[in-house]
Fold this sequence. Notes:
By secondary structure, the chain is mostly helical. The chain is built from 18 helices and 2 strands. Helix 3 (63-89) runs antiparallel to helix 4 (96-120), helix 6 runs antiparallel to helix 7 (164-188) and helix 12 (320-369) runs antiparallel to helix 15. The model is unreliable at 193-219 and 263-268 (pLDDT under 50). Belongs to the ABC transporter superfamily. ABCC family. Conjugate transporter (TC 3.A.1.208) subfamily.
Amino acid sequence: MENILADLCGTSPEDPVPVWIHGSVGHCFNQLTLNVAPHIILAVVSACFLGTPRYGADVPHRRDWRCRIAASFILAGLLLADIIPAAISQQELGPVYLEVLASGIAALTWLTHGLALLMLCRSIHSSTRGPAALALLTLLPIPSLIITLVWYCQNGTAWSPGHPAVSSRFSILCLQLACLLLYVISYLFPAANRQEFLSINNSWQPDPLISEPGIPASDWQGVAEDGESWLSRFSYAWMNPLMKRGYHWMLNRPQDVYVLPHHSPLAQEGVRLFSVLHSVFGLRFYSLGLLKLAGSLLGFSGPLLLNLLVNFMESRQEPLSHGVLYALGLFAGSFLGALLRNQFSYEVYKVMLMVRAAVISAIYRKTLRVSSTSLAHFTVGEIVNFMSTDTDRLVNFCPSFHEVWSLPFQFAITLYLLYQQVGVAFLGGLALALLLVPINKVIANRIMKCNKEMLKHKDSRVKVRGGWRKAPSSLHPQALCSCTLRTWQ
Length: 489
């Protein structure tokens, strides 16, 4: 472990992470302990809020929430931009690998934190400032930034013309502190939450009894620029009635504005199921990929630490503290990996349940609203399959989506680790995996064909059972009475 830290920090193995150097805090200690560790804690806590359920579709975003979200994403962009001058400056401030590691982890942390804030501002926390613990954790990286800022000032390289890369990093550091200051101010001084209680049965303002001259009535609803002359189109004269209504504060309802033009693609394009699901559940579902990625990476830490532990037991040249660290790391990696994978599965199944409920409700509502003529194109069995089998197949896509990108990622890392252990012999495993692809394709096609045949028979079965249940209602009541009298006689 000392050798790894020494290579990362550019120090000696005897003291790989010096705490105090030349009257100031050691840069490696500052980056690993005061920068990387707090960002990892903030990332883990922020990831726990990615699955916060959404509260309604029209939750207003307050100004303080928008400022904090913008500050988080700007910080992520600044940290990614800091990697470029860090690679150029090489050893001006610290080893390039240490700088890239610290900036990369911090950028991923603030990106995760921004997504968590985006989920929180759409939840029941929108009327508050959000969890206090999450805001307090954002203050942990500030000491590291201040120590780095003091180091720049002491060395006099902040605005040195001979070190443009270092000057760029100093500018980025000042911008990071400004964003953190904006974040803190937005949290401490939130915007006033003005609540308006409106009735769905009333307009926002009562309609005037007498209309102003030149202003259409309140129930007027024109059609944009359709039918207007080319001069009106170029001068936007067709918007004059709308501007007059806005001047007199009469744009209070959807009926008070223009109708979309007939040639507008928005007026002709039908609503697609995928686009609706994407807009409602997309952000929450896609952000769960961060949990999947973290769980996969922790899963690979087990074999690596186990290899180090076996080498430690075989060589018996490393100190005992190394073996203890390997064992603790093996336990912590397995525990955290299992915890993140469990949370990922739980959140994915929650999304699956919401998607299933939304799709079934939409099908049921559509069945009740369409005309009998349109409904005659489908049998009862097909509608039942829409609400059961087809919905299940749609919902099962949720876990499969994250497997599509995670499996190639895990497979590539596995092949690389095999190459390090056995060399070129890993190609045998690669050839076997490639050989299984066409076999799985044939099996999948066969399963799909059998499922189609099964659904056809299922439709027929539901139709027959439905007819059998309706048959007794078609019997004449007089026949039933006759049978009853004969039984009594």
